[in-house]
Structure formats: structure tokens, C-alpha cells
Amino acid sequence: MDFTSNTPLDPSLYGPDPAALEFFKQQTGITGEDELKQHVLAIQEKAFAVAPYPCIHSFGFTRLRISRQPKYQSVLQLGRDRSGALLLDLGCCFGNDARKAVADGWPVTQMISTDIKQELWDLGHDLFRSTPSSFPSLFIAGDCLDPSFLSSEPGHTSPPPPDLSLITSLNDLHGKLTAVHASSIFHLFSAEEQASLVCSVAALLSPAEGSVVFGSHIGLPKQGTMREEIFGRMEEVYCYDPESWNKLWADAGPFKTEASLTEMVGPKGEVAWMMVWSATRTAV
User: Fold this and answer.
1) Ranges of each domain in the chain
2) What tens digit of pLDDT does each residue of 98-150 get?
3) What CATH code would you report for 65-281?
4) Is pTM beyond 0.90 here?
5) What is the number of other CB atoms lying within 10 angstroms of the CB of residue 40?
6) InterPro entries in the record, alphabetically (predicted)?
7) 170 close to 151: Cβ distance less than 8 angstroms
8) What's the chain look like in SS3?
């Protein structure tokens, strides 16, 4: 969902929660809250000119998503237990969640991030005052709906771990990933595109029991199309319910699936549901 970069930004929407605020202070080295806010606002303005997305307009990028997931601690344990374990953040934007996972112990050279726009990752270095040398995590720019970048077709058969310096697309990682985090991305696509993406992401996972895909996005108690006004325009979002979402992953399996809805009420009384989910590889 793209919107015009001429849409006015609203600084009053800035309001990171205490955990996010502390994280940003640690990662940027900016301890003064007013100075940090001005720094974030400056990055937001640059990013919105490149990618006028609602999540940038609403400061969604200041929220930590990965660490709120029920599977997060078990994923960090996989990183400690499996030699060469690889974690992918799908739809990473500035790389906030990748940096959170690294801060919590995931090896930086085994962290991979992807988004459709290279510029957002580059602005992430500006946001967090880092460089590719100080934060040497792999980023791959590409369209996750493009089969030449990510496909459900069988990939390379080289044994893990792959040489990340040679990776040019997600297809090079088929069957290699220990975990994939995917929040606030699936609901951007049509029902058919979401179903296809499930199969493609499932193909990235290692066949080892316990490999996991996890995340959250907008859902509904009964699957269907949700219509909402964003920046004065009516947008349609196709939402799965937990039962139908679990079935998509079960069909791409073998997976143990979990999904639940949490009701959220907006400032104008509008109701939405956030679906938190995971699909964990089981023995064949």
C-alpha cells in the first residue's frame, strides 16, 4: 500500500513504549529523549520520501515486534543450540527487529534481513548510527513475490551452512534457515499472494525438526476482506482467520501450527484484530 510522499507527517504520533525507547537509546547512543525524537523525525522524513508507507507515517518502525512474539525466546535458544543457525527477518524495513535479535544474543553474521527497498536498510544505518562494518549483518533487497527472488520451487542442494557472501536472492537459502520472522507483511497482499508466499517461505526452512516461522499481522475472526480508511483513501486488506491461516501452513508442512487473535481498539473506537502465529517444523 503506497501513498503519496506529500502526505503531511504528524510528529504527535511519535511515542515509543518504554522498552522501545530504551532500545533506541542503547542502539543509537542518544540518551536525551528530545534529541532522540528529533533524530527519529529526521530519518522518518527521509524514509517517507522514499517509501510513503503507513508504518513509516505512524512510526510503526519504532515498535519492537520480534521480542513480543511468544516464540521469541525459543528462537533465541535455537540460535544457541544449533551451529550456524540462520534467522531471516522478512520485510525488515530499517532492521529494528534484526538488531533486537542481535542485541539479545543472535550472532550478527548469522542474521539475514530482506526488504523490497535497499534505501530503507541504508537509512537503518543512519537511524542506528551504524555502518556495514559495525553491524555486518546480511541484507538482500528484493521482491518476495518475484519467483526469481523467492520461489517455492526446490533450490540449491549444497549442504548448510551456505556461504552468505555468495547469496544474491532468497532462493539461495532454500532449506537453510533455522527461523524466519515475518510481521506486518502478509496482510499487504491478496489472498492468493499470501497463500503463495506461505509456500515460498516454508521452502526456506531447514528440514530439521523445530525450525520455525513466526510473526504477526492483521487477521479477522472470519476470513474475508477488511476495508479501512488510510490517509483518506479506502483500502482493502484480505485477512485470514486463525483456522484458515493454520491450514495454509499445514498444507505446506509438515508443521505444528498456532494462531490466535487479539482485539485492538483504536483512538476513534475502530476495532481491529492482530493475529499472532507460528509454524514449527515437525518430523516427517
Assistant:
1) 11-61, 65-281
2) 999 999 999 999 999 999 999 999 999 999 999 999 999 999 999 999 999 99
3) 3.40.50.150
4) yes
5) 20
6) Meroterpenoid_MTases, SAM-dependent_MTases_sf
7) no
8) CCCCCCCCCCHHHCCCCHHHHHHHHHHHCCCCHHHHHHHHHHHHHHHHHHCCCHHHHCCHHHCCCHHHCCCHHHHHHHHHHCCCCCEEEECCCCCHHHHHHHHCCCCHHHEEEEECCHHHHHHHHHHHCCCCCCCCCEEEECCCCCCCCCCCCCCCCCCCCCCHHHCCCHHHHCCCECEEECCCCHHHCCHHHHHHHHHHHHHHECCCCCCEEEEEEEECCCCEEEEEEECCEEEEEEECCHHHHHHHHHHCCCEEEEEEEEEEECCCCCEEEEEEEEEEECCC
